[in-house]
Write a structure and sequence with these properties.
By secondary structure, this protein is mostly helical. The chain is built from 3 helices and 2 strands; from the N terminus they run αααββ. A hairpin with a 2-residue loop joins strand 1 and strand 2.
């Protein structure tokens, strides 16, 4: 039973990580980095989940590996495998969330294209030429 739960949880983490990495995970009430900073815009949510993806891939892989190992061991070894898997997965998920939140906080919305003139963008002090 424990092996099945860990394998399923790892698969869910891998799915969220891949969607986040590709930028196709939509803002939702269940999955991904969901902090006030990441939920303020689609761009912040995409940035947060793209940055969180590598630790989440590691967490998912760790969880799946631990789940598979749980099918092969018993007794004290089972408890050690489950404990190490749980602690490692939790550490990686929290790390991904913190890194993702930091990325979301650093995300700034760009100027509107309506502000750009023939000579370049003039919105909010931007002077970069259009290309």
């Amino acid at each position: 039973m424990l092996g099945s739960v860990l394998t399923l949880a790892g698969s869910a983490l891998l799915t969220v990580a891949v969607l986040g990495w590709r930028g196709t995970l939509p803002r939702n009430p269940v999955a991904g980095v969901r902090t006030p900073s990441s939920l303020r815009s689609d761009a912040a949510f995409r940035a947060a989940n793209r940055v969180a993806a590598p630790p989440l891939v590691a967490a998912g892989a760790s969880c799946v590996t631990g789940g598979v190992l749980c099918f092969a061991v018993t007794g004290t070894v089972l408890a050690v495998v489950a404990g190490v898997t749980g602690a490692g997965t939790l550490t990686l998920v929290v790390t991904g969330g913190l890194l993702g939140n930091h990325a979301a906080e650093a995300t700034r919305e760009g100027p509107s294209c309506d502000s750009c003139g023939v000579g370049g963008c003039t919105a909010k002090g931007f002077t970069a030429a259009r290309g």
